[in-house]
């Protein structure tokens, strides 16, 4: 074999090795850019849930692009909290909670409890937590003095007792405990045994469509171990609730009502992440 032939054979072998290396590299790159099977399965399930009725492109995208969390892990807790009721939507909300075998926390306004006593009774009978959300829902009245603050919640408690025979110390301040509540009012509530709850996931449901609410849950809830979800008794919120519950379950959350034994989570305590 002359040198020229040797060079040709060497050239062929080197070319072959290079081609094999290139193909292998292409396969590796292709695999690493597509999602892992676990995330695909999870995404497919969530997509199926949110697409089970009419749903905007936004939500579909959100479920595919945003959810990159790990698989189901224990001790992920979600508290569904619903403000401003009871209302004409309470029964629909309760039906949805029952259908999914979960409970929520209702932060109720005094006048609405009086207007909807049957709903108040049903909230409790179905295993949900009754909480209060003031009499006036007006920060100027509520924070006139620390005494006025406590009095509004004591009034709520009297109303609940008259309707149901139950009492509660679990409350949510209108518009949250910060920045509106003065320190004196906050401390006075604590001194009187009230357990003040804020939230770390605002669904912005009062100004959103059903699909936007679901999208907000998908987006803002993506990295949280514990979620306190803020909702209101609105038509679109009641309609979104079923999908919200399914998504939370799919993501491995245990859905629980707030209880007297839970350490209250609020903006003063800075224990909401
Ligand atoms: Zn409110």
From TrEMBL:
MF-aspect GO terms: hydrolase activity, acting on carbon-nitrogen (but not peptide) bonds
Xref: PROSITE patterns: NODB
Cell membrane recorded as keyword: no
Domain called NodB homology: residue spans: 76-256
GO biological process per UniProt: carbohydrate metabolic process
Transmembrane domains' residue ranges: 9-29
Stored Pfam families: Polysacc_deac_1 (PF01522)
Protein name, UniProt field: Polysaccharide deacetylase
Originating species: Romboutsia weinsteinii
């Amino acid at each position: 074999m002359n040198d020229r032939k040797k060079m040709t054979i060497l050239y062929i072998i080197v070319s072959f090795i290079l081609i094999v290396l290139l193909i292998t590299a292409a396969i590796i790159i292709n695999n690493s850019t597509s999602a892992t099977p676990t995330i695909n399965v999870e995404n497919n399930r969530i997509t199926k849930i949110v697409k089970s009725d009419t749903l905007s492109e936004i939500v579909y995208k959100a479920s595919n692009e945003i959810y990159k969390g790990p698989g189901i892990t224990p001790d992920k807790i979600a508290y569904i909290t619903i403000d401003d009721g009871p209302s004409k939507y309470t029964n629909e909300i309760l039906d949805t909670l029952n259908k999914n075998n979960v409970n929520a926390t209702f932060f109720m306004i005094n006048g609405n409890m009086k207007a909807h006593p049957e709903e108040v009774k049903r909230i409790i009978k179905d295993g949900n937590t009754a909480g209060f959300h003031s009499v006036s829902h007006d920060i100027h009245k509520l924070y006139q003095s620390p005494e006025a603050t406590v009095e509004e919640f004591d009034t709520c408690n009297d109303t609940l007792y008259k309707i149901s025979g139950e009492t509660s110390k679990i409350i949510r301040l209108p518009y949250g405990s910060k920045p509106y509540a003065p320190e004196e009012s906050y401390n006075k509530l604590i001194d009187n045994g009230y357990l003040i709850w804020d939230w770390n996931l605002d669904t912005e449901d009062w100004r959103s469509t059903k699909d936007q609410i679901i999208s907000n849950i998908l987006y803002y809830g993506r990295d949280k171990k514990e979620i306190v979800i803020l909702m209101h008794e609105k038509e679109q919120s009641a309609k979104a609730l079923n999908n919200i519950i399914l998504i939370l379950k799919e993501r491995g959350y245990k859905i629980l009502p707030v209880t007297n034994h839970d350490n209250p989570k609020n903006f003063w305590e800075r224990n909401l992440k």
